[in-house]
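Below is a filled-in request sheet from our internal design queue. Each sheet records the structural input a requester submitted and the sequence that came back. We keep these sheets so that new team members can see what a complete request looks like end to end.

REQUESTER: design group, bay 2
PRIORITY: normal
MODE: inverse folding
CHAIN LENGTH: 233
BACKBONE (tokenized):
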């Protein structure tokens, strides 16, 4: 599943670069975006590079043996794609450089399992399990910007994010809230932006957060493709 989405996200990233190159042919490089402070946000699709095996292992080789449950059948599924969003404040220093502070929500991953088995000599019964992992954080970024026409520009992003992951679960009627360990993660991205009426801008961006989260909960690369808007003031 992830390999397919990863290929899609790679193609989309190259599409961004291709669009920028095409746009460059329609005008001379010029600065349309206003210098100074701006705010904005975006909404898009997230994908986490994580698999379900650690969750299966926790149940089958950890939790179930500890409570004496002997499964005779076990089926599980894993959804690593969700919706995410950003909220940001930035400062355009020059035509080619900007800095941004951003809140980034990477959405959820969801694991579900149905296990049938017995405890001692009991009648067979079914245990339903659900785990939900979330990750979000605040980051500081530098943007390198290449104006390619009066309205269009290409930019690259690099920075660090302070991520707070959360993993919760429900096994049968019991609720589990795992320990949370914050982490500092590297984030990079590439995007293309269009300026409207000098103070408004629309963005199409691809970002990757590397090893986002904590190894004690969920730590994995996260891809984020989004559409956004910024407003200068």
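RETURNED SEQUENCE:
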């Amino acid at each position: 599943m992830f390999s397919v989405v990863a290929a899609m996200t790679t193609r989309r990233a190259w599409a961004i670069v291709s669009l920028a190159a095409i746009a460059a042919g329609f005008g001379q490089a010029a600065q349309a975006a206003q210098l100074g402070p701006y705010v904005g946000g975006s909404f898009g699709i997230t994908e986490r590079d994580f698999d379900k095996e650690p969750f299966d292992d926790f149940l089958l080789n950890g939790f179930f043996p500890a409570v004496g449950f002997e499964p005779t059948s076990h089926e599980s599924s894993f959804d690593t794609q969700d919706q995410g969003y950003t909220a940001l404040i930035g400062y355009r220093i020059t035509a080619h450089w900007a800095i941004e502070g951003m809140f980034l929500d990477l959405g959820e991953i969801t694991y579900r399992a149905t296990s049938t088995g017995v405890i001692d000599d009991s009648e067979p019964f079914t245990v339903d399990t659900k785990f939900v992992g979330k990750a979000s954080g605040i980051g500081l970024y530098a943007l390198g910007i290449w104006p390619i026409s009066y309205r269009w520009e290409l930019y690259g992003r690099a920075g660090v994010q302070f991520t707070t992951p959360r993993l919760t679960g429900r096994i049968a009627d019991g609720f589990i809230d795992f320990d949370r360990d914050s982490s500092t993660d590297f984030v990079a991205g590439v995007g293309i932006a269009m300026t409207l009426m000098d103070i408004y801008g629309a963005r199409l961006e691809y970002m990757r957060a590397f090893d986002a989260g904590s190894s004690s909960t969920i730590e994995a690369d996260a891809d984020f493709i989004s559409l956004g808007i910024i407003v200068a003031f």
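SHEET NOTES:
- Residues 1-10, 13-29 have pLDDT under 50 and may be disordered.
- The CA atoms of residues 38 and 233 lie 6 Å apart.
FILED BY: M.R.
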